[in-house]
Every structure is written in C-alpha cells, then in structure tokens.
Amino acid sequence: MVSLNWKHHTLIQALISRGPLKEKEFQSIFTGVTGRNSGAAKKIFDKYLLEINKELSYVHFELRACRDQYDGQVCYGVVNNVADEQSKLGTKYSVPQIAFFKGIIEAIAQDEAAQGCISSFDALNIRLENQLPSEASSSQQQVPPAFKNFSMSQKEKALVELVKDKWLCRTNEGNIGVGIRSLLDLRSWFRNNEVPSCEVCNEAGVKADLCPSEGCTVRIHKYCLKKLLSQRDDKRCSGCGKPWPLSKVTKAEAVEEALNDEEENETQPTAPKSKRRRQLRSHGDSTDNSSAQASLASTSGATGRRVTRSVAHLR
Ligand SMILES: [Zn+2]
Ligand SMILES: [Zn+2]
C-alpha cells in the first residue's frame, strides 16, 4: 500500500474543492507542488496520478480525466464511483431539482443528431413526472406535490445553479449542454444508456459529428475528427466506407490541433485504451430510443461494474 504525502493530498484537495480543473490549471498546480513540469516530467506526473488512484480506489473515488466535448479541452476531476446520481447531487439539490437535472441529461443524450444540447425553452419544459419510477408514473395521483409544484422560476433557478456547479453548461449559442462534471461523472451512465461512442476515442458521443450516410450511425467528436485528419488525408467512415465530409476542418488546423493534443492525450490517466466498442445497432431499430430512456436512477445496479472497469485502467 502506497502512502500519500502532502503533495498528493494537495492535488486531491485542489480537485475536490475547485474541480473539475482544466488540464493547464491542474498541471500548474502540479508544477507548484512538485517543482516539476508535468510535460517534461510526464512519468512523474503519471506516477502521482497512479498513486493517488490506488489510494482513492479503496474509498471508491477516482481521479479521472476527460475531454470537455464542447471545446475539446482535457479536464481533471475526482469522481465518486459508487454513489448513484441521487447521492452525488443530493447534499445540495432537492429531489425535484435532481429529477429536473436527470430529465435534461436524458433529453440531450437521446438526441439522435448528437448536438449535445437542448434549448433553454425545452429544458424549462422538461416534465418531472417522467422521472418517477415506472410504476409510479402510470398513476397521476402518485406524483409527489414537490414535483407538481415545481414552478418555472424554480426551474430557472435550478438551471443557474446546475450550470454554476458544472453539472450543466451554457453553450456558445446559449443552449443548455452537459457540464464537465457530468461528463466526468456520468461516463458509465452514458454507456449504460447506449449513447453511441465516438469511433476514435470510444467515449460517449454526446456532442459529435454524425456520418451523413443514411443508415450509418457512426459519430465522431469534432476534436477527434481533426486528429484523424491530421494523420491521413483520405478519411472514410469506418462504418459505411463513404468519405467523411471534412469541409469544415482544414488540414493545417487539424495538424496544429494534433500537435497540441499529443501531450494532453498521453497524460490522461483513464483514457480508454482498449478498443472495446459495442457494435452499433441499425438505424431503423426503434427500440434504441426506449432503452435510452431508462432513468439515471435505474443504473445503480451497474455501479459494481463501473468501479471495476475504471479502476482497471489504472493498474
Ligand atoms: Zn472522440
Ligand atoms: Zn458512415
């Protein structure tokens, strides 16, 4: 058993009290604490993360990295691997607020166009009744008063709080998207709810570009697409073999992006390395949607697997 020193503790503390942190912020804290540059001393940086995660795993927490799907930047955070979403948000948010949050995340995750957001209008019109356990939702009488009385202004207030806490985000267009805290924390939920993964990085393609071919369900994050393009000119969709439209990404842009990313990628402690990718189901299969509608609460049975998988990356 490795024992952690004050340097490890400072890093954990920074992520818990101020996180999730952008890679640059986290690395500058690392440099401040250890006197090492995380880029030059990458092995030492990785060793710290590994040691921290070995200890955190005993209490089912994990220091994790993931990309903000809206700007492509790597972020670090400490996530709770065991608790369901109720207990993750429960200390601060009320039951109807959590139901509201779940409704928004589900609406975004189910979007077949993978735009990664919904309008504020749609968000405010999310029906909390849909978040009740299935046996209760069949009967209107069982809708708790707290749900029925959850007013528009309470929803607006919850939105502001959830954005502030990075569970949700505001996109550049003013829509409501998935916040970095949720991207870090709900990784298993996105998998369990069959949000199709990005072809390149295997993370859920919450905000991604879709293959334009009819019937092809391949999706790729914009930043992953840029990286791919920097590696070769002829990019064909791995699903249908047709050329991927690249008009919006110039080669120069892509190469630059890839150079910036190279280091970032290597320092991600939990980036999925295995090419474990579920075969996507055919486009016409209407059951795809209904399975994604399972509520966040119903995923609690998967937490055991979740822990095993995420810890396994680090060993
Ligand atoms: Zn990707
Ligand atoms: Zn395709």
Automatic annotation (TrEMBL):
One of its GO terms (cellular component) is Smc5-Smc6 complex. Gene3D superfamilies: 3.90.1150.220, Winged helix-like DNA-binding domain superfamily/Winged helix DNA-binding domain, Zinc/RING finger domain, C3HC4 (zinc finger). The keyword DNA repair applies. It holds the Pfam family SMC_Nse1. One of its GO terms (biological process) is DNA repair. Keywords: DNA damage, DNA recombination, DNA repair, Metal-binding, Nucleus, Transferase, Ubl conjugation pathway, Zinc, Zinc-finger. The keyword Ion transport does not apply. It is found in: Nucleus. This is Non-structural maintenance of chromosomes element 1 homolog. It comes from Cardamine amara subsp. amara.
